[in-house]
Amino acid sequence: MSEAKTFRVVIAGGGVAALEAAIALRELAGALVSVQLVAPNTEFSYRPMSVREPFAYAPADQYPLAEIAADIGAELVVDEFAWVDTEQQIAHTTKGVELAYDALMLALGAHMKSPFGHGLTIDDRRMDELLHGVVQDVEEGYVRSIAFVAPARMGWPLPLYELALMTAARAYDMGVHADLTIITPETAPLAIFGDEASEAVGELLSDAGVTVITSAHAQVPEEGQVVIQNGETTLNADRVIVLPELFGPSVRGLPAGEHGFIPIDEHAKVRGVDRVYAAGDAADFAVKHGGLAAQQADAAAESIAALAGAQLTPEPFRGEIHGVLLTGRKPRYLTAHISGSRGYSSQITETATWIPATKIAAQYLAPYLARRADSPNAA
Ligand SMILES: Cc1cc2nc3c(=O)[nH]c(=O)nc-3n(C[C@H](O)[C@H](O)[C@H](O)COP(=O)(O)OP(=O)(O)OC[C@H]3O[C@@H](n4cnc5c(N)ncnc54)[C@H](O)[C@@H]3O)c2cc1C
């Protein structure tokens, strides 16, 4: 087939959803599509593993995007998507480049904001710099209490729990005591993973000596102070670690969803807009999680492949959530089906129930990374 006749797909983003969509498209539509990957970052970062950095583990893996693009026959455009003209089917970049598309996929991620202006807000780009000192102070007995606080609008479910459990394990190993408290708006610990997993995580936390305050609307009005339910309870802690609040990219040219997220349907198509898809943390799905980002990307890739002429029937996004909870001891593997922001048919095991058993369960990206020689952390 000549280049002029290929179906032009522009994918904006260089994270999980973008790469999953790009690999899926190549597998599902082969030479029917040409793919341009537009991203400002030159490396794909395996964000979930950053929680281990403050505990003196190796940094989270980084993979050169140029290599990944070459492997899957995509053109890498190092630039930033700026806005879309949906009538002309043109994606505009911040450098002023115009990319014509037959289908556009937006996988732009979310913006992290510090919700309270106080406390240490988790940022995976500098996790070690941010929290290594805190872990050291716990080890040396200078820090005796830490509050781990999630904002009213829950962001990523796992990292706050992982940091608390890993800190508890480290304190135990060093023979020091620290009061560790998780304060969360969830009705139960990791409620998104369903009742069974949530109860088991609750027991795990209790065994580790971590207190959990659920259904909590917290504020951090000053350093070291957490106020819950408008003053009903006040908690003082030597350090306060905070999950960031997430906001969508507010894309010019598309309908605006709440908090700037892009509204999508069950095929990850942007509502009311032809040939534009969105997936991952940028989309308006209530739960933000890498595995879900990948499933949305798969749904979009199937729809785009069908538009390009591939013989398949696009399936809607499944909403099955897999999570590996790092605990500082044996990890736990959690699975649930989700509806809205609730999990059901919940499962928790000490061995993986999906293959490859990666932190980010992604049908195409996970096996691709596992095949690469430079992926010790991903598995
Ligand atoms: C500490 C931590 C632990 C986590 N643990 C887990 C876990 O255990 N399991 C799990 O499944 N998930 C986990 N998550 C969540 C997971 O990392 C995210 O849900 C996932 O990265 C979302 O993927 P995404 O592609 O939507 O967005 P991102 O990964 O944020 O990628 C967005 C990409 O878009 C690029 N971009 C931004 N703006 C533009 C633009 N204008 N034009 C072009 N490109 C742009 C960015 O540079 C980036 O490459 C964790 C997250 C964190 C921070």
Provide the spatial order of strands within the biggest beta sheet. Answer: 5-2-1-9-20
Mean of residue pLDDT?
Answer: 94
Give the count of structural domains.
Answer: 2
Unreliably modeled segments: none
Report the count of strand segments: 23
Sequence of secondary-structure elements: EHEEEHEEEEEEEHEHEHEEEEEEEHEEEH
CATH architecture level-2 label of the largest domain = 3-Layer(bba) Sandwich
| Structural class determined from secondary elements | alpha/beta
Rounded to the nearest angstrom, the distance between the terminal CA atoms is 38 Å
- Broad shape: elongated
- Give a list of the ligands: flavin-adenine dinucleotide
Q: What percentage of the residues does DSSP assign to strands (E)?
A: 25-35%
Examine the coordinates and then state which fold CATH places here, giving the name of the CATH topology of the largest domain: FAD/NAD(P)-binding domain
Helix content: 10-25%
Rg measurement, Å: 21 Å
Q: Largest beta sheet, briefly?
A: 5 strands, parallel
CATH superfamily of the largest domain: FAD/NAD(P)-binding domain
- By DSSP (H or I, 4+ residues per run), the number of helices equals 7
Name the CATH class of the largest domain. Alpha Beta
Q: Concise description?
A:
This protein folds into two domains: 3-110 and 248-317, FAD/NAD(P)-binding domain; 113-245, FAD/NAD(P)-binding domain (3-Layer(bba) Sandwich). The chain contains seven helices and 23 strands. The protein has helices at 16-29, 65-71, 127-139, 158-174, 194-207, 290-307, 365-371; strands at 7-12, 33-39, 43-45, 62-64, 74-78, 81-85, 90-93, 98-100, 103-106, 111-113, 120-121, 145-149, 179-183, 210-213, 218-222, 225-228, 233-236, 239-242, 245-247, 276-278, 320-325, 332-339, 342-349.
